[in-house]
Design a protein that fits this description.
Strand content of chain B: 15-25%
Structural class of chain B: alpha+beta
Structural class of chain A: mainly beta
Radius of gyration of chain A: 15 Å
Oligomer: heterodimer
Largest sheet of chain A: 4 strands, antiparallel
Strand order of the largest sheet of chain A: 1-2-6-4
Largest interface: A-B, 34 and 42 residues
Order of helices and strands of chain A: EEEEEEEE
Distance between the termini of chain B: 43 Å
Number of strands of chain B: 18
Helix content of chain A: under 10%
């Protein structure tokens, strides 16, 4: 079953200072039937920006499971962006996303987060 | 009361008389905004003609100069820098560069801003040195016409597009962001005509520190980079998806049961089958495509045409939209396969060999090969739609970025001048006149004198000494040799034995000495007073030349001029 990206990945707040809990938002639709998907978010390994998911240690990626229906569905994933070891100071950071459906068909999307000096 | 009226009347008449000589000058001042002020402004006022590249006089040194000139209407800013040379006039081209475009170390490093009033500008430069050649670079800025701005916009857009296109990732450090801004600025500058500059305060103003613009710059850049990188990300999976779609379609086309179903419905004579064939024409065509047409369909092209631009080639949102529509149509067609199988294998359907119906139903299962092929086509439709949106978004963001490049028209004028002057100027700068009292204690005489002072360096007597440094720093501007003549005779009167001394020339004796200005107007000095003295020998009646020391206190005659009508009357001709 195919997944259509109806509205590209966005993030709020953007621009933002760090550390900050951000919300990743995207509108998806499955055709022709409801579809379980995996959403994986990644940051480049070498810079100073990291994800922190709840109480987990900072990481460069995290995943979410969703089930997408046949009507437009807004998927919201929240995570905290924090400073960690790596190259900096970073002013613009790219969050890559891979959507994998039940056929293992993958689609990619991304969003850029503007980091302001606190 | 009557006396009061009389006094008032005198004052008014006096004022009118005083105004009368200045009235024509006042009218001239209106006509020429750079006409010299009648009041002491504290500056040396110099008119500059930017078109001719000339100034109105030899440049005075040791005093601040206020240039005044006219600019084209609409000028918003004028700046001034200068360069000097002691031996030769500086060689400067029309763009304030040296021979063969060599850069010149203009002073000061930060250009001096002038003030603009209509088309008149005034700008003050610090004290110049004496006996030097100067070249002045005046840069004026005005807003460009809408036509010029409109003509430049596509050039700016192309430069920004080319500068941003090679960026592969959206992770930018502060240094990378600054370097990117510099690269984009360089690309923009290379597109500009020599008389254009980026307006102050705008995103690519080279005078603005990057830190001050970083948030604005990164915000604008993000809007361009995000769709640009998103398109690249979509296209990364595009090749794999195409390959998978083509493989899935060929697998279906190669299936014998599908082949027999397609053949049976290719041109059915039975009206019911013809209706069925027409209803499912899309999926039947997809199953009947040649390998070449299948490859073209998988790439999002029209299977029936050898022409077309693929999704990874095009930068045109409309082409990407057409590709998306073809993928979507293919996905929709494949989605009809289960219904086709159901009707074709049902009552009144196609006569198929035993086992074909089961094989076809197996292909049409919800997670079967046809659904998989349809999923590839639908995903590719989504990909193409997003590429289309990304291309449109990047174009819009680039357009906004190009709009940030606000322009100014820049005029550059070179003016050559010198503080060297002619012999007459030298004379004014090296020689001064003074007048005062000379005291010769040995002669018990105090008389007035006039003299000339010979300086060892050019001295601008309009430059207040206190503004030029302390006593030691201004010594060379204070010290001068003095040559003078007494105004009154120092001859003594006859005392019965006849006079004992006479003047050197007629009724005047000569002063030879040196002096120091202790203030701008007062000088003290000393030296030898030369006169004639009676020979002490009673046998000799001749007067010999003799000297005696003296001290002087004198006033600079420039100062005396300030008291014209009073003290100035003592020194006619000054």
């Amino acid at each position: 079953m195919a997944i259509q990206i109806r509205k590209n990945l966005s993030v709020s707040p953007n621009p933002t200072t760090l550390p900050k809990r951000i919300e990743l938002v995207q509108t998806l639709r499955a055709t022709p039937a409801e579809e379980p998907i995996t959403l994986e978010y990644r940051l480049a390994p070498d810079h100073q920006i990291w994800f922190q998911d709840g109480d987990d240690p900072p990481a460069k990626s995290f995943s979410r499971q969703e089930t997408v229906g046949t009507t437009d569905q807004i998927c919201r994933d929240r995570v905290t962006l924090v400073f960690g070891p790596g190259i900096g100071p970073i002013e613009l950071v790219q969050i890559d996303q891979t959507i994998t459906d039940s056929f293992d068909i993958q689609q990619t999307d991304l969003v850029l987060v503007q980091i302001q000096k606190s | 009361m009557a006396e009061s009226r009389t006094v008032l009347g005198r004052v008014i008449v006096g004022s009118l008389l005083a105004l009368a000589p200045f009235a024509p000058r006042a009218l001239r001042a209106q006509a020429d905004p750079c006409a010299a002020s009648t009041a002491d402004t504290g500056f040396a006022e110099v008119s500059v003609n930017l078109q001719a590249g000339t100034v109105s006089s030899v440049l005075p040194f040791d005093v601040p100069i206020r240039f005044c000139g006219t600019l084209a209407s609409g000028a918003k800013r004028v700046t001034l820098q200068y360069v000097s040379d002691r031996k030769n006039p500086p060689q400067v081209d029309d763009n304030c560069r040296g021979p063969e475009g060599a850069p010149i170390a203009w002073l000061p490093a930060t250009p001096i801003d002038g003030r603009i009033d209509g088309t008149t500008f005034r700008t003050v430069i610090p004290r110049l040195e004496s006996q030097r050649y100067y070249a002045f670079c005046f840069r004026s800025e005005s807003e460009v016409t809408p036509e010029v701005a409109a003509a430049f916009r596509p050039l700016a857009l192309a430069a920004l597009d080319a500068g941003l296109a090679p960026i592969e990732r959206g992770d930018l450090t502060a240094d990378e962001s600054e370097a990117l801004r510099r690269r984009l600025l360089a690309a923009l500058l290379s597109q500009m005509k020599s008389d254009l500059a980026i307006a102050p305060g705008t995103l690519f103003d080279s005078r603005e520190p990057h830190n001050d613009l970083a948030d604005r710059f990164n915000g604008r850049i993000r809007q361009v980079l995000e769709p640009q990188l998103r398109r690249k990300a979509f296209l990364k999976t595009y090749a794999t998806l195409q390959f998978d779609l083509a493989a899935a379609l060929r697998g279906l086309q190669d299936d014998p049961a599908v082949g027999r179903l397609v053949a049976a419905l290719a041109a059915p004579s039975d009206p019911n089958l013809a209706t069925l064939s027409n209803a499912f024409r899309g999926v039947l065509d997809a199953m009947a495509m040649s390998p070449d047409a299948t490859g073209r369909a998988a790439r999002g092209l029209d299977p029936a045409s050898a022409e077309g631009e693929t999704l990874d080639e095009t930068l045109d949102p409309a082409v990407a939209g057409a590709v998306a529509a073809r993928y979507d149509a293919l996905a929709q067609a494949l989605a009809g396969f289960p219904a086709l199988v159901e009707r074709a294998t049902g009552p009144g359907g196609v006569e198929l060999p035993e086992g074909d119906a089961d094989a076809l139903r197996s292909l049409a299962e919800p997670r079967g090969p046809v659904a998989r092929a349809g999923a590839f086509a639908a995903t590719l439709a989504s990909t193409a739609t997003n590429v289309q949106a990304s291309l449109a978004a990047r174009t819009a963001a680039l357009d906004q970025l190009a709009a940030e490049v606000a322009l100014r028209a820049v005029g550059v004028q070179i003016v050559d001048a010198s503080s060297t002057g002619t012999f007459e100027t030298f004379q004014n700068y090296y020689v001064s006149a003074d007048a005062g009292l000379v005291a010769a204690p040995e002669l018990d005489a105090v008389v007035s004198y006039v003299g000339v002072n010979l300086y060892l360096r050019p001295v601008n007597k309009n430059a207040p000494l206190r503004q030029l440094g302390n006593f030691r720093q201004t010594f060379s501007r204070r010290f001068a040799f003095t040559l003078g003549l007494t105004v009154q005779s120092i001859a003594d009167s006859s005392n019965g034995n006849g006079p004992t001394r006479q003047d050197l020339f007629g009724n005047q004796s000569m002063l030879l000495g040196a002096g120091l200005r202790i203030t701008d107007m007062i000088r003290i000095g000393g030296g030898a007073l030369v006169f004639k003295e009676d020979n002490p020998s009673p046998l000799i009646t001749k007067f010999d030349t003799a000297v005696s020391y003296y001290f002087t206190v004198s006033f600079d005659l420039n100062v005396a001029r300030a008291f014209k009508g009073g003290l100035g009357g003592l020194f006619p001709g000054q």
